[in-house]
Amino acid sequence: MQTNLLHNPDLTASVIFGLGWVYLLLFVMNSWWVRRSMAMDGDFRLRLGGLLGKGIDIPVAAFWAVYAAMLFVVAVTHLTRLNSPQVFLLKMPEILKAPINAGSNPVAFFVGSTTIYVAMIVFRKKWTTDTAGWILLNLSMLFMTLSVTDYDFRQIVGKPDNVPIVAMLYIVGFFTWLYFKKSVDNDQRKAEGRPLFEQENNEKVLTWPDLVYTELICMVVVTAILVAWGIVLQAPLEEPASAAKTPNPSKAPWYFLGLQEMLVYFDPWMAGVVLPSVILVGLMAIPYIDFNKLGNGYYTFNERKFAVSTFLFGFLPLWVAMIVLGTFLRGPNWNFFSPYEYWDVHKLEFLNNVNLSEWFWLSVCGQQLPVAPAGSSLNYQISMILLREWLGLVAVAAYLFALPPLMAATVFRKFFTKMGFLRYMVLANLMLFMMSLPIKMVLRWAINLKYIVAIPEWFFNI
Amino acid sequence: MSVGDYIRGSQIWKSIFRHPAPVDRRNRIVVMLTNFFLHLHPVSIKQQGIALSYTWCMGGITFFLFLVETITGVLLMFYYRPTLEFAFNDILALRDVTTLGIMREIHRWSAHAMVITVWLHMYRVFLTGSYKPPREFNWVIGVLLLVLTLLLSFTGYLLPWDQLAIWAITVGSNMARATPVLGYEGPGAQLLNIGGFDLITNGSDARFLLLGSRFVSEATLNRFYILHCVAIPLVVSLLIAIHFWRVRKDGGISQPL
Predict the structure, then answer these.
(1) Could you tell me if B133 and B73 lie in one domain?
(2) DSSP 8-class letter at A369
(3) A288 neighbourhood in chain B, CB within 8 Å
(4) Chain A partners of B107 at a C-beta cutoff of 8 Å?
(5) Within-domain flag for B23
(6) What angle do CA A205, B62, B153 make, to 5 degrees?
(7) Could you tell me the residue range of the domain that residue B143 belongs to?
(8) DSSP A187-221
(9) pLDDT of A246-270, one tens digit each?
């Protein structure tokens, strides 16, 4: 691996130059922010623990000005770089890379993204202020620019087909921020008995010019972005197709990588067919199972806590984050690779996963798996398979058939009475299918469980 | 009389635009009613229905990207031949020698962008509760459009016929092999047999239907090409028309009637 690093330098002249432009962009963005801060943020009292007596008032903008100035110096350093790339200092420090690499694994990734999801909801008032949003944007951009100085990170993130995913992360992040900002505002208005934001200024206006011009400007901007994107980034074209040369890793198109990631935990019939179908049917069912009349035509969180939390959980940690995991962190043989790790084809991961039936018969009962002797009747073979897998079959049946009524009597009691039997059952089953992925993940990580029901004879593994 | 006035006063101009320029209130209303393209919109609209911070403009951008895809796609169809002999070389030529070969870049990046904007459009529609009555069914059509957008992108992925293309399609279509009952490695497929003779084999299952062969081959290329350029766009166009019509009939993009 050391030799590999020598051949592939972290920094080259062109990378440094490119990053210079990013820092310059950050400088311009933050200069604008300094102006905004001067107008809006007011002062901050500096006391230094009583050293300054009553303290002195410093405008908050001063801190941003110092930060912007630093960015400018950094940008100039990049753009006018005089020494060789090998000794250039401004790169992701190894002290940060090492713990990030060491701490990265699928468990940490999923726990992390779920934690962020929970924190996003709990602290929605805190992180949706303008300043908090700006700080988050700056931090994420600094993280990206610094990370690009790592050779392995750059190889993955810089792939032409992966660039849209990076852009998507920022866009999804921004709109999630915007949603929570507007919801917090509306929920506050509701609590104070003021009209909602969407109810104020909702006069009818003429479509020409108000909408038609917006559309025109939108089209021009989108066209400009597409042309610029097409010039800067060439569409990928690899070697001519060859059925004999299987690339490693072989990946589906990026928008299906969340599904491909599910293959780690489920067999293809579940991950590739049943669960995608359930996702689509579930999406279509949303208007028919959401009986809540509130929150139609305005942003709110408090009035639709269950609906929004469920949707966000499905979209952010289970869809977008899984795509990120599948695209950036899964390398050869679908092994997990940390963000700054070389995609080594020979990396070994020990798989000692066991099926529930193996655990039950071998470990608990201390005997061999029940097997029908060769040549026995079909019925006998079937009954032996069922006997072998009885625990898993009972578990799955209980999950799908016992849990919905149980939930109806307990946590979903209110839903059940309001929704009626059929709509409630659809909701309960959709929830169970959605939760089957995290449940299967946790079982895999906690007790190395491979299949709850393992009947490879019938291609029936759950 | 200026040239502009002369043109605007001519019979030809007046036969196309049957009213004066939309500079006053009356003509701004008339233009929405008499122009084919503009009549998709209502004459007047609630401010929140067009506020960018509310709508995010994602549905509109998605539609625009669909138009971009159609235009660049038609241009690419003039050049590209979907056969094993020519497919890869035509794309190579588009990259290296063809005038306006950038159409392929724009086509591909718009495709990626369209997938993202569809998601964001659905995100916005969900978060504003715009699928609630009376718009339930339009959400369903929207989900169908999401599926078709993904299928359009997926079928287009194969056409360059490079390593990226065939292996992405191989990985993606391998899933169909495991379709319950209808895939030859899916649970229940063994049930479909007559006198020990399997009906579902790798030459007759769901994956074979998708690929037109047992593995990604020239038959697949032809099949995906037709799906990508003709079949799916036709269905998408119809559903878009219904989607827009329903937005109007359901009383705008959101809020109760």
Answers:
(1) yes
(2) P
(3) 136
(4) 235
(5) yes
(6) 170
(7) 57-249
(8) HHHHHHTPPPTTTTT--EEEHHHHHHHHHHHHHHH
(9) 999 999 999 999 999 999 999 999 9
